[in-house]
Design brief:
Elements: E1 9-11, E2 14-16, E3 23-27, H1 36-49, E4 53-58, H2 61-64, H3 87-94, H4 98-110, E5 114-119, H5 122-130, E6 136-138, H6 146-153, E7 159-162, H7 168-180, E8 186-191, H8 206-214, E9 217-221, H9 228-235, E10 240-244, H10 262-279, E11 299-302, E12 317-320, H11 331-334
Parallel strand pairs: 3-4, 3-10, 4-5, 6-7, 7-8, 8-9, 9-10
Antiparallel strand pairs: 1-2, 11-12
Helix pairs in contact: 1-4, 1-10, 6-7, 9-10
């Protein structure tokens, strides 16, 4: 197990690592509901929310699955968000037309965003290469597709890979494939592939284990209904956050139920940066901002006027604020001592006040 600090990843000039604010990705998925105008509005709203990147998904229904009536290709689970659809019908509704990609990528770049995608087959990688994307995302359901992972690695570009459902062995196989075939910059995302996901199943302790095991940057792809899990992930070392984005859950969208609206994404961006700053380092004795406050800790003061030679007792000294006198730990040491000066009430006690 390699415990060395993983090297930073750089995507389109943006560094990803613990010394930088979290890299926040807004996943557009199919929430554009097949409207290019709505997709443009989503990119603009994501930029205003302060995200670092927007991500598309590059597939068609036919590159994703088979148009088949067999029960294998139907979504039958009662608790599944998309229950009642065939896989082919679902992906036909949700896919992003490939002719939109360049336009949306250009729009994102104009707004200062990094734009990339998840390819779901090798033809999608070839297509995205023609658009010169800066990196790739491998989705949880594709992290066992070794031929696809090999092709992505051969581009030599950074790869962000979700680990949902994968065993440690499967993750190791995927990471080894990436590294052997030319990918040296890898970010693994802890992910629970349920829609929506329960915070109780986030298991965020895995973040540090992934980092140590594979010596790479680790983030979180979060499908829970709020931002708490993502922020906790940052506190535990996540350097990338990916969440689904929608303009309005009420308006619908294929993934709207577990997506964040713009104001929530803005809050996530702001608070994740604060969370990363708050992790800091091991420190005792007070931060720089606390130094002035040390004056207001407790110390020993004269509580009643005393005269030269008088003995200090519990009646004429007290432990109070501020902290300019002797430390409270010396209280029992000074009880019974004689003072060598007259001392007024409110005098901060010092060793020089005692007879030698």
């Amino acid at each position: 197990m390699n415990k060395a600090l993983p090297f930073e990843v750089e995507i389109a000039g943006r560094r990803i690592g613990r010394q930088h604010k979290p890299f926040v990705i807004a996943e557009l998925s199919g929430n554009h509901s097949q409207s290019l105008e709505l997709a443009f509005e989503m990119v603009e709203a994501a930029a205003k929310a302060g995200v670092d990147a927007i991500k598309l998904q590059t597939y068609t229904a036919d590159t994703m699955t088979l148009d088949c009536d067999s029960e294998d290709f139907q979504i039958l689970e009662n608790d599944n968000l998309w229950q009642g659809n065939s896989l082919h019908n679902l992906y036909q509704k949700a896919y992003t037309p490939w002719e939109w990609h360049r336009t949306l990528f250009n729009k994102a770049k104009e707004l200062g965003l990094i734009a990339f995608s998840s390819p779901f087959d090798i033809s999608a990688v070839d297509f995205l290469e023609s658009l010169d994307v800066p990196c790739y995302k491998i989705a949880s359901f594709e992290n066992n597709d070794i031929p696809l992972i090999k092709r992505i690695a051969q581009t030599g570009k950074p790869v962000i890979m979700s680990t949902g459902m994968a065993s440690l062995t499967e993750i190791s196989e995927a990471v080894d494939t990436l590294r052997v075939h030319g990918c040296s910059q890898i970010v693994l995302l802890k992910c629970t592939s349920a829609y929506p996901a329960s915070p109780a199943e986030a298991n965020l302790k895995t973040i540090e284990h992934l980092r140590q095991t594979f010596n790479c940057q680790v983030g979180i792809s979060d499908h829970t209904l709020s931002v708490g899990v993502a922020l906790t992930g940052v506190a535990l070392g996540a350097t990338v956050i990916e969440k689904h984005f929608v303009l309005s859950r009420a308006a619908g969208g294929v993934d709207a139920e577990f997506s964040l609206e713009p104001y929530e994404f803005k809050f996530l961006v702001q608070e994740s940066e604060k969370a990363a700053q708050a992790v800091g380092k091991v420190l005792y004795g007070g931060a720089r901002s606390e130094q002035a406050s040390k004056k207001y800790r407790r110390s020993i003061y004269i509580a009643k006027d005393v005269v030269e030679g008088e003995v200090l007792t519990a009646e004429n000294i007290r432990v109070v604020r501020p902290g300019l006198g002797l430390a409270p730990k010396h209280y029992t040491d000074v009880i019974g001592q004689q003072v060598q000066y007259d001392l007024k009430k409110g005098t901060a006690l010092s060793w020089e006040h005692f007879k030698k």
